[in-house]
Amino acid sequence: MHNSHIPPDVVARVIKRRGKEHIHDDLMPSKTALIVVDMQNAFMPIPVAHAPCDMAPKIVPQINKLAQAVRDTGGVVVWIQTACTPGDKITWSNAHKIVSHERALMRFAALERGSEGYALWPEMDARPDDIYVEKHRFSAFIQGSSDLDGILREQGVDTVLITGTVTNVCCESTARDAMMLNYKVVMVSDGNAADNDEEHNATLRAIYLTFGDVMDSGLIIDLLKRRSNVRTAAE
After folding, report:
1. Domains (ranges, CATH) in the chain?
2. Model pTM greater than 0.90?
């Protein structure tokens, strides 16, 4: 896994601004969604991938454990899959012009709906009762990308736990937009994968300073269990 690290001076700035280290440690499990971004074959270190991330398979155990904890405590698990369709060539043409023509073609082939690259990595513990959402932009929340926001609001979700790959592109974009839409955002430090530690940690710092919270999966699982017990006792 990544050597995730937030410098002490950044932690100190957050505590000074917010009054405590973890602003979202009061999450309600029943209003929490685990968002798993792009854990698809197209982003894994296998031949079918167009943008392989070597670290991606290494975060699978943490995501699967977190998914089960979220289910057990009354939350929802959402699997996000990127798709490339013919319409995207028109509606998101600039994104495909800033890479080489060859790479753009590789992306469209790897992420064609129903293809091997589009499919979730087989080791992901995706269940039939989970929620599956297709997106068409880096962010799952931005207008025109998916119907994720509407789905979560119907479920009564107010907190999102962001996991997936890659940390500094689709995961960060999704996290930032979630906060803009008034969700409480928690970036899972050991549940995100990037091409290197530097890019991974840059995103963690940016999210932690301004857009939400950063916790590892162990801390989140403990919080979910503890907060679920608090809710049950109150009822």
Report:
1. 8-234 (3.40.50.850)
2. yes
